[in-house]
Design a protein that fits this description.
The protein is α/β, with parallel strands linked by helices and 284 residues long. It has helices at 16-32, 47-50, 59-63, 77-83, 116-121, 138-155, 174-187, 200-205, 222-234, 244-247, 252-265, 269-283, and strands at residues 5-7, 13-15, 39-43, 72-75, 92-95, 97-98, 111-112, 126-131, 159-163, 191-194, 211-214, 239-242.
């Protein structure tokens, strides 16, 4: 037998502690990405820098009706402890970066705000942190990412890197997002959250880690948001991590149901929009 190895009760050889941790990492990833390899993540972490954003003033009221339709929740520890009932068996992606606000000069000036011990205490499936490539705090946020990844490897917890752009929404083009996603993947991020853009398939092809798309600010209407999700998944995204384009809709349950049909059922845009309208009309 290999030195340092031992057999478990099934007779399978397990070499060293690190190898055993890989099972936990894989298990957590499979909790986020379902059997089809896709994910519908519901982002409700916006308050960490935006405060009580519209329709998230009373978080519990907004979030609870959507939980049955989401594969996972992305949120802060304060939101989790105060607004999510522990009875819900839903995977959690914990926002662990912050220290900025919409009123500050530079949204990129973020640090790590949660210890890994607290993340473990909260039974998370993954942790999430923003990186700001091309900003004055690029180095700081990328080093934060590597520190988080090192800690995640110790405990078998995946890290989701958010390719944030702060207030500079014009940065959301293929060249910039390809650069940001590739850097995050090269540093070891297990999941990348980025924006949809023209030529998005190029972003996907150049990023070896699974990519989910952010919804960004609320779009003009639900059809536009569904179109974005459909085109992103068609181009190779592994799903969505959307917030405002779901829960800022007047018909949020209809909206997340339509998004699910695109991600998990390979619904056409027309079919998804018809589903949205059907559920919307039933709720009126």
């Amino acid at each position: 037998m290999t030195p340092g190895a031992n057999r478990n009760c099934a007779g399978v050889v397990s070499v060293h502690k690190e190898e055993a941790m890989d099972w936990g990492m894989k298990n957590r990833m499979q909790r986020i990405f379902k059997d089809d390899g896709k994910a519908v993540m519901l982002a409700v972490d916006h308050g960490y820098f935006l405060g009580p954003v519209s329709r998230l003033e009373e978080p519990r009221k907004t979030i609870e009706p959507l939980i049955p339709y989401a594969d996972s929740l992305m949120l802060t520890r304060g939101m989790l402890r105060n607004c999510i009932d522990p009875k819900y068996n839903i995977p959690l992606v914990l926002r662990v970066s912050g220290g900025n606000s919409i009123l500050g000069k530079d949204l990129s000036n973020e640090g790590i705000t949660v210890s890994f011990e607290d993340a473990i205490r909260l039974n998370v499936a993954a942790v999430a942190l923003s990186i700001y490539v091309g900003t004055d705090h690029e180095h700081q946020t990328l080093i934060n990412l590597t520190k988080l990844i090192d800690e995640g490897q110790k405990y078998g917890i995946p890290v989701l890197a958010v390719t944030a752009v702060g207030k500079e929404l014009e940065k959301r083009d293929c060249r910039y997002l390809s650069l940001s996603c590739r850097i995050a993947a090269e540093l070891g991020a297990h999941i990348i959250k980025t924006y949809y853009c023209e030529d998005f398939e190029k972003v996907i092809k150049s990023c070896p880690a699974p990519v989910v798309i952010a919804g960004g600010p609320k779009l003009k209407n639900e059809l536009d948001a569904l179109k974005m999700a459909y085109e992103a998944v068609s181009a190779g995204a592994k799903g969505v991590d959307m917030g405002r384009n779901i829960w800022q809709s007047r018909w949020s349950v209809a909206m997340i149901s339509a998004i699910r049909s695109i991600v998990h059922e390979k619904a056409s845009l027309k079919k998804a929009y018809n589903l949205f309208n059907s559920l919307k009309n039933k709720s009126n």
